[in-house]
Amino acid sequence: MKTYLVTGGAGFIGSNFVLYMLKKYNDVKIVNLDKLTYAGNLENLKDVQENPKHIFVQGDICDKELVTELFDKYDIDYVVNFAAESHVDRSIKEPEIFASTNVLGTVNLLNCAKNAWERENGWKDGVRYHQVSTDEVYGSLGDTGYFMETTPLDPHSPYSSSKAGADFMVKAYFDTFNMPVTITRCSNNYGPYHFPEKLIPLLINNCLNHKDLPVYGDGLNIRDWLYVEDHCKAIDMVVRDGRVGEVYNVGGHNERTNIQIVKTVIKHIHDNVDETVTEDLIKYVEDRKGHDRRYGIAPDKIKEELGWYPETTFEVGIVKTIEWYLENRQWMENVTSGEYQKYYEKMYTV
Ligand code: NAD
Ligand code: DAU
Fold it and tell me: Which of 308, 336, 319, 220 is closest to 265 using CA atoms?
């Protein structure tokens, strides 16, 4: 039995990872530490509510006493740190919480793991600290080229700068203490349980409610979209088999301009759900400050070393995603009305 401390496991990718791991493995136990900020939603975890291999703890990754207690109580083998403030637009408005959670929270986790795992002559057997990072730490690309693991970090937003700060702290624990760490840097995820402040779920929700579809700037910024389950697979592989001290880029060679994404969502909903949904809903709005133009990942290293590749094409993934939202309208309704926070009382005693 391997015990994971998964942080941020009530958020979008974290909850997908918890569900993926508990479905795939019988010999995995997950301690899920999540502060339940506005982005944490226990409704995402209702399928594992009764599963004794899932232990939910509401708390802050910055809380040294609590994290130390979790290491003492649960004999943690792996830490997978998803917990973060994750939205670029919010980071432009309130950068402090990004520095606090993303940088200081990561340092606290590293330190508590070090205290629990360090031995006189090295490290406890088989342990690993894994940091879930982002391609945004590399900055922005021009029309050609890709981010490689060797690309120098050049973050621009308060969000990406805080994620880069966290990555440097993880590297410092490897360089200074030889702590067994790995980092993955992934491109834009999409799929079930994605909070509707982010582009794709926002578009789906607004289409279904006949609301304007806000497109920042000229709509020609490019993101490299990856289906969330493919990201979960990549993290699982890196935690188990990735080389200690290494960074692995994760991406799908699925580059799209934002306006292409908008038109794809409109077309699917128009053709399959509601023919009154048309491109008339598109509304060009003021650009995001410091808006990165293009992200593109070369996932060659993870493919060559671990055999990972993005299995879900964008064409398949986007239809699966829209269908999920159609089948789970109550989930969206609960999120947009604030009802989801009632799950805090209903589902777990925390
Ligand atoms: P999210 O905002 O959906 O979820 C974040 C989760 O972290 C929430 O459940 C929240 O309650 C929790 N959290 C926030 N602050 C906390 C704290 N101080 N202590 C404990 N829990 C806290 O984010 P996401 O989109 O699922 O992203 C997860 C991770 O993956 C982040 O580290 C993000 O930087 C990274 N990432 C995201 C993407 C993407 O496309 N969404 C791509 C690459 C990397
Ligand atoms: O690249 C990985 C990153 O992807 C993650 O590290 C972040 O946590 C995640 O939030 C995401 O960041 P982005 O800023 O790329 O995602 P977002 O969905 O906010 O925006 C995607 C693109 O769409 C971006 O170019 C801005 C644009 N956009 C976004 C919104 C919300 C719009 O044009 N209109 C919108 O309303």
Answer: 319
Instruction: Look at residue 227 and give its three-state secondary structure.
Output: strand
Widest CA span in the chain: 68
Catalytic residue among 135, 167, 230, 236: 135
Distance of CA 93 to the CA centre of its chain: 21
- What phi and psi, each to the nearest 5 degrees, are found at residue 134? -140, 155
Which amino acid appears at position 230 of this protein? Answer: D
Question: DSSP labels for 24-91?
Answer: H-SSEEEEEEE---TT--GGGGGGGTT-TTEEEEE--TT-HHHHHHHHHHH--SEEEE--S---HHHH
Residues 51-66: tens digit of each pLDDT: 999 999 999 999 999 9
Taking the whole predicted model, whether its pTM rises above 0.90 is answered as yes
Closest CA to 6 of 74, 100, 93: 74
Residue 40 phi/psi, 5-degree rounding, is -90, 135
Ligand 1 pocket by C-beta < 6 Å: which residues?
7-8, 10-14, 33-37, 39-40, 60-62, 82-86, 101, 105, 132, 134, 163, 186, 188-189, 195
pLDDT tens sequence across 66-121: 999 999 999 999 999 999 999 999 999 999 999 999 999 999 999 999 999 999 99
Amino acid letter, 219? G
DSSP annotation string for 66-85 = HHHHHHHHH--SEEEE--S-
Number of Cβ atoms within 10 Å of the Cβ of 260 = 14
Taking each helix axis from N to C terminus, what angle separates 199-208 and 329-337, rounded to the nearest 10 degrees?
100
Q: Cα of 15 to ligand 1 centre, how many Å?
A: 10
